[in-house]
Amino acid sequence: xxxxVIVGTGPAGLTAAIxxxxxxxxxxxxxxxxxxxxxxTTTEIENYPGFPEGITGPELMDNMRKQAERFGATFxxxxxxxxxxxxxxxxxxxxxxxxxxxETLIISTGASAKYLGIPGETENVGRGVSTCATCDGFFFxxxxxxxVGGGDTALEEANFLTRFxxxxxxxxxxxxxRASKIMxxxxxxxxxxxxxxxxxxxxxxxxxxxxxxxxxRNNVSGEEEILHANGVFVAIGHHPNTDFxxxxxxxxxxxxxxxxxxxxxxxVPGVFASGDVQDTRxxxxxxxxxxxxxAAMDSEKFIDSLENN
Length: 309
Description:
6 helices
């Protein structure tokens, strides 16, 4: 039986592993289908502290993993099929690995960005297609960009991108936006933002050097056209990776795990959450790493309280 098991190997899970391993807790880390999380699709990271020249996402995640292994964390690759959180110790059924038993559990499974599902999209992630303006906007200075989406997130990203881009076109399949009035007013008053409403994205167009445009269909006339752009930012939301929990932990209406404010504690004693799986606002590598440290410290304190009783 393990003292602590961590599910997920993004910056939150790996930071938790580093902290627990250094505390001599010998954590087990379960990697899913995408070891390293969303950062493995990011070519260059320039806002993570400590790397003045920047670092690639895969390299940062590999460094974190090696650091955790150096202090004694164990890694296995597998898909968590089911969990039993009714009582401690908790039981996890991992595909191909069997049953794993642990005193505490840290859930760091992240949130997956929703994609449009059109040709040329996933193939060009890192080559002009992005789901994070804060992460990648800097690389598009004086370029023309497209933001796909009609909610608050889309307009917030469009406004942010105008700090760098020469022009940002908002593409939305309906004539009416879903965003709040204040966000719409802010975006419509921005001279760098243009609108392509009632248009459905059909294909991300790219050349040898990356994205060159977005093919769309006019929903009124049925005509197709290519909107020129050097980058396409997809801003249609995220899906927290919590389906495997089967409702055993309190989540909000969108499936994000609810934690006690200022902690990583969930409503199940001994179960902690960190990273994007419980973060509906920031979704940054540095904030995920911070909550990973919190989860490790909360887990260690929980174990200590068990051993001292």
